[in-house]
Amino acid sequence: MQSSNILAVELVFLLLLFFVAALGLLARKLQVPYPIVLVIGGALLGLVPGIPRVTLNPDVVFFVVLPPLLYSAAWVTPWREFSRNLVSILFLAVGLVAFTVIGVAIAAPWFFPGFDWRLGLVLGAVIAPTDAIAATSIAERIGLPKRIKDLLEGESLVNDATGLLALEFGIAIVVRGATPTFTEGAFRFLYLIVGGLAVGLLIGWVADWIERRVDDAPIEIALSILIPYVAYFTAEHIRASGVLAVVSCGLFLSRRSSRFFTPGVRLQIWAVWEALTFILNGLVFVLIGLQLPNVLEGIRGYGLANLLWYGLSFAGLVIALRIFWVFPGTKVALGIRRRFLHQQIPPASVRNILILGWAGMRGVIALAAAIALPQTLQDGSPFPQRNLIIFLAFCVILVTLVLQGLTLPLLVTKCGMAHLNTSNSEESAARRDMVQAALTYLEQNESRSLEGFEEVIADLIGHYRQRLAAATEVLDQRETDHSPHHHARMDHLLRELLRIERQTAIQLRDEGKINDEVLRQLEHELDLREAGPTHVSPAV
Fold first, then answer.
1. C-alpha separations of 256 from 212, 332, 449 in Å
2. What element of type H or E holds 32?
3. Rounded (5°) CA angle 191-224-195
4. 217, 265 in Cβ contact below 8 A?
5. Is 337 helix (H, G, I), strand (E, B) or coil?
6. Terminal CA-to-CA distance of the chain, rounded, Å?
7. Range list of H helices, 292-424
8. Are the beta carbons of 235 and 196 closer than 8 angstroms?
9. pTM of the full structure
10. In the chain, where are the structural domains located?
């Protein structure tokens, strides 16, 4: 019996993995953000007869899926922008969440029969936080302006603490009939934040100490997967914010990683995490869609027309509350940053604020929080309107992901902001400075070079001068006869030479002159050379 259960779980997992790969490929073909295609595809698959029913376990989401995905999102979040935008992020992550919770608590009794302000508070807390997974995945795919993307990612990394605190209070009010005081709420919120940040930084400091003494890719990859779970479980064990612990740990180690990761480890660890985050993201969004039959089965006593009206009207309310908040909230946050923090930032345009307001996608955290609601109250009676809360959370996820996710590119284009990230002046300047520093070193050490290396160094100097000309796009015919166009043609030639080397190595393997182990080593060297934006000169 036990082996048959394991076989069934394995079969379901393999089917889910196949759906992720197939729907991900379809999203790539359609040029649509893959979370949207995965959710829709999962919902359609859930309605197909014979497809195994998969019930979303909230513990799996919170304790298995969430830590590595939060860690990955925090790792790629630029600390400079995060710290610079912290006031604006807090206005969204704390102010907007509180505004949404209160707004839903007030409006729910008017929208849904059987709801009072307490159930509205629970419902608002469930759907108030935006989703880090959805925000990052969709923002990257549709090319949002960097300023808005930084705010969205920062908001979605932090706002779970606010939402989960509100949910904790809402459940206490409904289940136990106890209303926490303002002092209790403030103390609990402060403890969540301080405890989570302290745990995250402590785990990050320990991990940094260990990483500096280890230089073995498999071990470091295993440690990188272990770290977010340690931070999350430790914080949750002391009833602090596991989300903030993972986020602070990821931000800290991301800044330190440039000093403790060797180039070889960095290449391997990026490849592993890229695959891991895609698989986990894909499984999450397919699972959201697959919950549709389970959600519909839990609803009793409502007609289809009423359910559609409830779902659409509630999703519209959530979207409207966000848009209503971001216009004054963004301007107040910018005013504080300019007046008190003396940050020289341009005023927020209506277009920027509108895009920010329309980009509040919800994801699996909202659905998991709804499913995790208690089944019964303290007196043993059923938790009121639990199934309807789950259904409404599902509707908000579906509408915000699909409707907003599909229309966001059009809105960005209509606002004239679709091509604002085509160039990165910082990257270009950094490339120029890096090449200039290397060229200066070569020129200063040319006279001290060992005998017999003069031609090699001269060739290197010529190569770096070509790269400098391409980086600055300034032609200096007195020093070089090569233009950026010539550099591009040279780069194409180098790629062609690498292709010929690769084909020759494969042919040697096929002819039995080298074995597969030698071929893998040669391919690895060629891959490293081809992966870089600028290849090494053939003379090197």
1. 10, 34, 35
2. none
3. 5
4. yes
5. helix
6. 63
7. 292-298, 304-339, 350-358, 364-371, 386-398, 405-414
8. yes
9. 0.86
10. 2-414, 423-482, 492-540
Two structure tokens written together for 343: 């940050």
**Rg of the chain, C-alpha, whole Å:** 27
CATH architecture for residues 2-414: Up-down Bundle (1.20)
Q: Which of 540, 65, 513 is nearest to 279 (CA)?
A: 65
Q: What is the DSSP letter of 212?
A: T
Give φ, ψ of 28 to 5 degrees. -65, -40
How far is residue 538 from each of residues 64, 471, 529, measured CA to CA in Å?
48, 20, 11
Tell me how far CA of residue 400 lies from CA of 8, 396, 470, 518, in angstroms: 33, 6, 43, 51
Residue 215 phi, psi (nearest 5): -135, 70
Q: Within 13 Å and on the Cβ side, how many CA atoms surround 13?
A: 8
What per-residue string of b and e applies to 16-32 under the rule 16 or more CB within 10 Å gives b? beebbeebbeebeeeeb
Asked if 142 and 33 touch (Cβ cutoff 8 Å), the reply is yes
**Neighbour count for residue 225 (Cβ, 10 Å):** 16
- Which amino acid, 111? F
List the pLDDT tens digit at each of the 540 positions of the chain: 456 677 777 888 888 899 999 998 998 898 888 888 999 999 888 888 877 788 888 998 899 999 999 999 899 888 888 999 999 999 999 999 999 999 999 999 998 988 999 999 999 999 999 886 666 666 666 667 788 888 988 998 888 888 888 998 899 899 887 777 878 888 988 999 999 999 999 999 999 999 999 988 899 999 999 999 999 999 999 999 999 999 999 999 998 888 888 877 888 898 899 999 999 988 989 989 888 888 888 787 788 888 999 999 999 999 999 999 999 999 999 999 999 998 988 888 898 899 999 988 898 889 899 999 998 888 888 999 999 999 999 999 999 988 888 888 888 888 876 655 544 666 677 778 778 888 887 777 655 555 566 677 777 778 778 778 777 764 344 344 455 566 667 677 777 777 888 888 888 888 888 888 888 888 877 777 776 554 443 333
The 3-state DSSP class for residue 166 equals helix
Distances (CA, A) of 18 to 40, 239, 324: 16, 37, 41
Burial code (b: 16+ CB inside 10 Å, e: under 16) for 98-109 equals bbbbbbbbebbe
- Return the ∠ at Cα 443 (arms to 441 and 449), rounded to 5°: 90
Pairwise CA distance, residues 390 & 393, whole Å = 5
For residue 70, the number of C-alpha atoms closer than 13 Å in the C-beta half-sphere is 33
Of 207, 211, 204, 221, the closest CA to residue 270 belongs to 221
Contact 483, 469 (CB under 8 A): yes
